């Protein structure tokens, strides 16, 4: 699992953990060496003193010549009887430490008799405790120092990365004249990252340039033939010798031309990155647009044998982007027309938006979210579309801050609800 901790924190943690392990191992090594040296040196010293007492002092009838800290005991000499607390001491070197007494014990068994040297170690114990405290203090200090140094080093290490991130986030980097950022960095990992960003940014600039050229071409090249077709339809509409069938076909051509013009305008608004794109194309209230779309789609819905109504449940006078709101409402009404064979289609206006209700085939709950994905159509597809209408609705709502969702009605059919946010 990849850690989600900040890079600076991870560097500090790694630095502190490394110091903790190294200092801990070093401190434990000191303690182990002290114990090893203590056991071996004291054991050797007491062994030599005990042999001297047995071979020289006692053999010559002299008392043991020992310092004030060392005492001699023997199991076969009543004068030097072994105290009860030392009687069970093992042969060789051992220690006895309690709250009031701390001694070294060295014991030899010779011909079934026990001989002991007992040496006080209070002074050595005090020095040993002082040493252990110093080792512990050094360990704690090294960990704290590692944290401080790790934080300082981590900031210096991360500084180029933070600087690079700031340059990457800067909006002016997308400008065509913005210089490359790789020359500002050394030939290291951060420099390689900056080079990769320059390369990727160059490709992004080219893509944006192609998109800008495309939107410019669409704006000029597509609108011109659409205007020609629309003008020709208007001229043909006043021709006196058109047959009813020809006039119906002409109206279909004009309606398709208008829809194409609206789609071109919608795609241009979505493609542009200007700050005022949300108000380009004019504004309209929800009620006015509902009357327009009701008149436009109501006739086709009724021609299919369906009942159509526009219900106003308190729509306010807030203005919205005309082109985008028209595209959203038009696509939802078209969708209801295609997927409803009998019953009713309702356009309901509310205080926070609108909804389109139908009594059509409905959408299974598990497909509600999928219906807004590109090229996804219902199980009982209708019309000649490619499944992009609801995807376009979702995209427009996302850009405008609106919300669109679908739910199944208890009476059958579906309800598409759009919650609007004012310009």
Automatic annotation (TrEMBL):
Catalytic activity: ATP + protein L-histidine = ADP + protein N-phospho-L-histidine
Domain Histidine kinase: 217-423
Protein EC: 2.7.13.3
Record key words, sorted: Kinase, Membrane, Phosphoprotein, Transferase, Transmembrane, Transmembrane helix, Two-component regulatory system
Membrane spanning stretches: 12-37, 130-154
InterPro entries given in the database record: HAMP_dom, HATPase_C_sf, HATPase_dom, His_kinase_dom, HisK_dim/P_dom, HisK_dim/P_sf, Sig_transdc_His_kin-like_C, TCS_sensor_his_kinase
Gene Ontology MF: a single term: phosphorelay sensor kinase activity
Domain HAMP as annotated: residue spans: 155-209
Enzyme class: transferase
GO CC terms in record: plasma membrane
Family annotation (SMART domains): HAMP, HATPase_c, HisKA
Origin superkingdom: Bacteria
Keyword Transit peptide in annotation: no
Protein name, UniProt field: histidine kinase
Compartment(s) of residence: Membrane
